[in-house]
Specification:
The protein contains eight helices and 14 strands. With 343 residues, it is of the alpha/beta class.
């Protein structure tokens, strides 16, 4: 038994080394110490031993596979939206955003698993609400950080082959994409901006999270949210984040029309709270950034934490019923649903 455990540990470490990726090299800053990126000092960092404690004490809620026959897929989107704004929820953290003749995907994931291997790891329980073959020409892809449920190389390579879009990424994530043959990358630090054309500008904003592809590249690349500045109004894509005062800073700096805010992967709180907001905190994020309307994401698709498939939506609904949240303009979409804002 001891030999088997040692062999198993050796296998895990070996795979962890193989899938670890090189990171950012550049000048130090308030959140980069020359080797790794950092959250504000008051944010507790979870160790490998914390991960093991959580893993061996897991009490995961129920998940049920949803077949394609029970999903209403989005109609084939228009090739271009020149007036107003259309936001289509694919599911998890993937949205198709169409405005000013530009088609944008955020954190696109169409794979069946979000894992370094195809035979294990979190698997998809809900089909993507937009079929990949129905996508319009994609001009721009935004990646919030390098976790497998946000940076899906299989999907990114397919997008590169089909559409040759530009990729806006946090610092250091471009290194991985360049190694994989994706060269048209624009790495951004927090509070930096990248004009896309005369109508669209992308602003990277602070988030509270971490990064890793393997066991030996923890925090070697940055994590971020984005403001998508468009003629129809600003869209805030939060990526993954725990709760912090920086959300109020984002709200003061940018006037936000639409918020895309995570609500899932939050249990148990002792482990997940530094990196993932819970549904009640997500509503507070919506208030902090001052969005006119927000939509939830990062729930019900991949079992990443201990919340069950329906827990985020149920807890979100309960939180909305609290007196201080009544009238809050924050909604949940089904995959394939769209929100249209006309000029």
């Amino acid at each position: 038994m001891t030999v088997l455990l040692m062999l198993g540990a050796a296998f895990v470490v070996s795979v962890g080394w193989i899938v670890s990726k090189p990171g950012y090299k550049g000048p130090t800053s308030k959140h980069f110490n020359g080797s790794t990126f950092e959250n504000p000092k008051e944010v507790p960092s979870k160790s490998f031993f914390d991960v093991m404690k959580w893993y061996f004490q897991r009490d995961q809620g129920e998940w049920t596979k949803i077949p394609e026959s029970e999903v209403t897929f989005a109609p084939k989107p228009a090739d271009a939206v020149t007036s107003g704004l259309v936001v289509t929820y694919v599911n998890h953290s993937t949205f198709l955003i169409q405005t000013a003749g530009v088609n944008i995907l955020v954190d696109p994931v169409w794979s069946d698993r979000v894992s370094p291997v195809s035979f294990a790891g979190p698997k998809r329980f809900r089909p993507a609400g937009v079929k990949f073959e129905d996508l319009p020409p994609i001009n721009l892809v935004l990646i919030s950080h390098n976790h497998y449920d946000h940076l899906d190389l299989e999907t990114l390579k397919k997008l590169e082959s089909e559409f040759d879009p530009r990729f806006v990424v946090p610092l250091g994530v471009d290194v991985l994409l360049n190694q994989e043959g994706i060269d048209d990358t624009y790495p951004l630090d927090w509070w930096a901006s990248q004009p896309i054309d005369s109508d669209i500008t992308i602003h990277a904003v602070q988030a509270q999270h971490f990064s890793a592809r393997g066991l030996f590249d923890r925090d070697k690349t940055l994590w971020a949210g984005y403001i998508i500045e468009t003629p129809a109004g600003n869209i805030y894509f939060a990526g993954d984040s725990g709760y912090g005062d920086f959300f109020k800073k984002i709200g003061k700096k940018y006037e936000i029309k639409v918020g895309l805010i995570p609500i899932g992967a939050y249990k148990p709180r002792w482990f997940m709270s530094p990196m993932h907001v819970d549904p009640e905190e997500a509503i507070q994020v919506h208030k902090d950034v001052g969005a006119e309307i927000s939509f939830g994401m990062h729930f019900g698709t991949f079992p990443l934490a201990d919340d069950g498939m329906n827990d985020p939506a149920n807890d979100f609904s309960k939180a909305l019923q609290k007196p201080e949240n009544r009238g809050v303009n924050f909604k949940l979409l089904e995959e394939g649903d769209s929100f249209e804002l006309k000029e």
